[in-house]
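Structural prep section.
Before we set up the soaks we want a predicted structure of the protein with 2-acetamido-2-deoxy-beta-D-glucopyranose in place, mainly to decide which crystallisation condition to try first. Input record follows.
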Amino acid sequence: MSPVCVYRLTMGVLGTVTWLTAASALGAAVFAAYLYSSLPPDVTEPRKALIVKGFMRSHFFMAWVHEKMGFGIMRPQPPPRASHPSLEVTDASFDGVRVLVYKPPAQKTATESKMAGLLWFHGGGWVIGSIDEYDGLVGRIANKTGAVVVSVEYRLAPEHKFPIPFEDCLTATQHFLQHASEYGVDPTRIGVAGDSAGGNLAAAVALRLNKDDKKKFPPLKLQALVYPALQAFDFQTPSYVRGHKFSPVVLPPNLMIVFWIKYLNNNMSLVDTFSNNGHTAALKKSRFASFVDRDFLDESVPRSTPDEDVSIDLPDDIKDILNPYFSPLMAEDADLSGLPNTYVTVCGKDILRDDGIMYAKRLEMAGVQVQLVRYPSGFHGIMSMTSEPFYFEVGKQMDQEFATFLRDHL
Ligand SMILES: *[C@@H]1O[C@H](CO)[C@@H](O)[C@H](O)[C@H]1NC(C)=O
Ligand SMILES: *[C@@H]1O[C@H](CO)[C@@H](O)[C@H](O)[C@H]1NC(C)=O
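Run finished without errors. Recording the tokens verbatim:
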């Protein structure tokens, strides 16, 4: 090769490298600017929130490509389970449902005294997530509360649609209530809890045990719902509308709607109809609409009740939207009364904020003891983000207050 050729080739390569570097820097800058400009105002620790948002958006994009290429739902391998030096962690099957049992050392104070118990249902839109992924959080709860915590590996949608995930959680709960003493647990001190879709499952299980199975099992001691998803009736609540405007850090409105549909019937052509409430337009004057009344969000405005109760059935493929075990906010007032002591946390920068507030208000009106805790600058998923590199003070505070509630009330 002549020196001229070498020179041209080198320059060509250098030019291409420079061009690619510049293009990717520009691309990264545009992506960052987009993320930052659409970050909800007053979100906690915005610089870190921005990194989380960039990470989540790239992840969702890859998951979308993965699915479009025909590989199904992307469910990455979770990191190996942590070691919990002060806990005994065992795999078990509760009537066919896989669980992990986290057992703290028995307290030595009161002789013969049994421990409290908690069933934990993880989040992930009924579609992703696992007991392995939640190992850190669940171990922390067991350690901080001194309760035996059962983390439930319910089967996931869309392979297993409603009611399977719900029924798995119910089966595990009933098993634990019946076999509590085998785990050193007092059956009258058992609660259910979960975050996001897990909060939905916990609320549904509590409703079901309060209704049909009252005589067969000891009543639950409490339900603790962390930014729960509780209704698929109204996707235009103020917190959803705000989510359309500002593009949330972790959970955008359309993703939540996709999760609901995968749990319901996996018919993705319904996304647009759902997002503008076309699926429930005919029910605007029904009592169901009064269950998701926006007046609940304002302390001063009295609740409006429908003049007439139109009874229109939804088509078979979406009728479970009105089923309280699918969306607990659809429960009748009579079925809410008698529910156990309830703890609900909501984040101000979360599209699911209003689901939690409405449920807490309805429970209160039904005479249930309920504590609604708001984290105005927090966003969806933040309670899981308590260690580096994703570390948020608000998340840590939520985690601590959640554990304190459980310790004091179980
Ligand atoms: C929680 O973990 C710490 C450190 O491993 C331990 O000292 C403590 O006893 C644990 N508490 C409970 C209730 O298991
Ligand atoms: C999906 O929903 C659309 C719109 O409601 C409906 O026309 C279609 O028949 C549904 N597809 C299936 C497979 O149920």
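Observations: The CA atoms of residues 140 and 403 lie 9 Å apart.
Flagged for discussion at group meeting.
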